[in-house]
Amino acid sequence: MKLRDFLLLVLICLVWGYSNVLSKIVVGNWSIPPLFFAAVRFAVVIAATIPWLLPMPRPRWRIIVIGLLMGAGNFALLFIGLQSASPSAAAVVIQIGVPFTTLLSIVMLGERIHWRRGLGIALTLAGVLLVVWNPDGVALSAGLWFVVGAAFTGSLGAVLMKQVEDVAPLRFQAWVGLVSFLPLALASAIFEQGQWTSAWAIGWPFVGAVLFAALVVSVVGHTSYYGLIRRYEANLLAPLTLMTPLFTIAFGVVLTGDRLDLRMVAGAMLALAGVLVVALRSRPQSPLLAEREQA
Fold first, then answer.
1. d(Cα 291, Cα 285) in Å, to the nearest integer?
2. Average pLDDT over residues 110-139
C-alpha cells in the first residue's frame, strides 16, 4: 500500500473511532434522545447526497430493507446502547458483528466455513465474553444488549447487500438516509420527548456533532474508504481497519473516562485477533460489507 493511502486509511479509522465516542457524548453526556440524533444525522446525509438519489437501485424492495437494517435499525440500536454503555466496551462488543456476518452468510448464501474461520469466530466471542465478565459471571448490560442488536441488524443488512451489484457508494448513502430518516423521525416523535429543547440547550456543539457525524463520517469517510477498496483488496484493508476500535478505546479513556483494565485489554485483543483471523481467511468483500464492519 502506498504511504499516502495508508495515512488516509489511518485518518479514516481515526475519524470513525472519534465518532463512536462523540456519539456517546451526544446521547449520554448531553442527553440528546438517540432516535432524534439518528434522524437528524440522516436528514443531513440526505441533503448532502440528494443529487445521487436517482435512479433508485434495484431491486427496490431489497434496497429499502437494507437501508432500514444498516441505517435506521443499526444506528438507533447503537445510539440507544451508548446511552449507558461505555464507548470502549461497545467498540469490543460490536465486533461480534463479524461472526454474525459469517454465520448469516452460511445460512442465507450457502457459504462454507473452514476451521480457521471457525477459530476466528470463537476468539471473537471469547473476547466479547471476557469484556462483559464480572466475578458473578457474565453481565451484559442493557446498553450492550442494544449494541449486540446493532451488530446483528448491520450484519443482516450486509449479507443482503451481497446480492446487490453495481450500486454507487453515494447513491447507496442517499437511499440509506432516505429510508432511515422517516421511521426514525416518526419513532422519535412517538417515543421521545424534549428533543428540540435538549438540542437547543446544547446549541452549536450539537450542530457541529451532527455535521461531523453526517458529512465527515458518513459521506467523506465512507466515500474515501470506497476509493481505497477499489485500489486494494478488502483482505488487505480489513485487518488495518481494526485500528478503529483501538482508536475508540483510546478516545473513550481520554474523553469519557472509560475504565481500561487488564480484562478489557485482554478481551479487546482476543476479539480483534478473532476478527483478524476471519478477515484474512475471507474472500474479497464488497465495499459495502467492508464498510458495515467499521460503522
1. 10
2. 70
